[in-house]
Write a structure and sequence with these properties.
Oligomer: single chain
Structural class: alpha+beta
Shape: elongated
Number of helices: 10
Bound molecules: zinc ion
Strand order of the largest sheet: 1-2-6-3-7-16
CATH superfamily of the largest domain: Zn peptidases
Number of domains: 2
Radius of gyration: 24 Å
CATH class of the largest domain: Alpha Beta
CATH architecture of the largest domain: 3-Layer(aba) Sandwich
């Protein structure tokens, strides 16, 4: 493979790629909007069919969410490379009026452009390169786009795990961090602690009451004491509510807890500690729910080795590729938990995911497409 030829190809297609990105971004597709999910999936399907490769395309209905999409190309011997992404965005319909799809200087703005519709186009462009150049990827390619990633992958997870377990390695086209790929992601957990105390008149007989709010505040101290920053573990109480009115000792209070961890050992330590919380005031009872959601994506030796290969490929055309580890989880976490090598954050550089300043950098499009294509040619 000649990296400069590949880069030339994508630079020559830049205007066409920009036009495609504009089209997919304009089809707003927030999670839980089944009709719009189907509309964006249909657009991807039609674009894929125009490429002229022999493709096997499967749409998997997901009630309430829309459709997941699988595209298989270059069938043959050997395990495929899995290209993972999602078609849902966090932006409600109409948000495109507040962040219109437009280019200003090097910034290409749009709702869901960075996370991660431009990168869906990138996957198709890699297929198109193979169709037009006649060169072949090193192994079969499977593209999986889920439609509920932004809201926890409750229906997509099974598909992600099924396809990942059959794959040689997995490239996740989630946003990069200032261009850096993600070689580690924390795992996540969510818990709720509810306290049930004894109500009483705050003026007449407060001694008969057992305050649920006081109990929750004591538990919050214990929860925050579980933090272990050097181990990569964070525990944060993110919401608190309780009480009814100003002259009543509160009977009910509760808090929700966000937990992040870098290793399963830490996940188990935190899970056991939260599950084992005991009320300080024995008259108050605690009800604890929730648990671990996504396991951590650890920077294993094979992940580090794949990153180094990607960095070396990028260097061949003068592109500097960095890496980072982040607190946010993605479907890459499910893949990593199966022991499959993952490189995440392969998307086009940009910023502002989930906000009204969301954008990608036009100058990064061809370079990122070149890198993705070269990764697929890696023997
Ligand atoms: Zn995303």
């Amino acid at each position: 493979m000649n990296p400069h030829h590949i880069l030339d190809h994508f630079q020559g297609r830049q205007e066409a790629i920009i036009a495609s990105i504009r089209e997919i971004v304009e089809i707003e597709s927030p999670s839980f909007d089944a009709e719009r999910s189907k509309a964006v999936v249909l657009w991807v399907e039609n674009e894929a069919r125009k490429i002229g490769l022999d493709l096997y395309i499967e749409k998997i209905p997901a009630e309430e969410y829309g459709e997941h999409l699988i595209i298989r190309a270059f069938p043959g011997a050997g395990k495929p490379a899995l290209l993972l992404g999602h078609t849902d965005t966090v932006h409600p319909v109409g948000t495109k009026l507040a962040n219109s799809t437009r280019i200003e200087g090097d910034k290409f703005y749009g709702c869901g452009i960075f996370d991660m519709k431009a990168n869906v186009v990138l996957m198709l462009e890699a297929l198109r390169y193979f169709a037009e150049s006649g060169s072949k990827p090193a192994r079969p390619i499977t593209i999986l786009l889920s439609c509920d990633e932004e809201v926890g992958s409750y229906t997509g997870r099974e598909l992600v795990e099924r396809e990942a377990s059959k794959s040689e390695f997995c490239c996740v086209f989630e946003p990069s961090a200032a261009g850096r790929v993600k070689t580690g992601r924390k795992g996540t957990g969510m818990f709720t602690v509810k306290a049930h105390g004894i109500p009483a008149h705050a003026g007449l007989e407060p001694e008969k009451g057992a305050s649920a709010i006081l109990e929750i505040s004591r538990q919050i101290e214990k929860l925050h004491a579980l933090n272990n920053i050097s181990a990569g573990t964070t525990v944060n109480v993110c919401t608190v509510k309780g009480g009814t009115t100003s002259n009543v000792i509160p009977e009910h209070a509760e808090c929700s807890i966000d937990v992040r961890f870098s290793t399963m050992d830490e996940a188990e330590r935190i899970n056991a500690a939260i599950r084992g919380l005991l009320a300080v005031d024995e008259r108050v009872s605690l009800d604890i729910s929730g648990g671990i959601n996504r396991p951590p994506m650890e920077r294993t030796d094979t992940v580090a080795a794949l990153f180094e290969k990607a960095r070396d490929l990028a260097a061949l055309f003068g592109y500097e590729l960095g890496e980072t580890q982040v607190g946010g989880a993605s479907d890459g976490n499910f893949v990593a938990a199966l022991g499959v090598t993952v490189l995440d954050g392969l998307g086009i550089a940009g910023d502002g995911a989930h906000t009204l300043t969301e954008h990608i950098l036009v100058s990064d499009i061809a370079k990122r497409a070149t890198l993705a294509t070269m990764l697929l040619m890696l023997g």
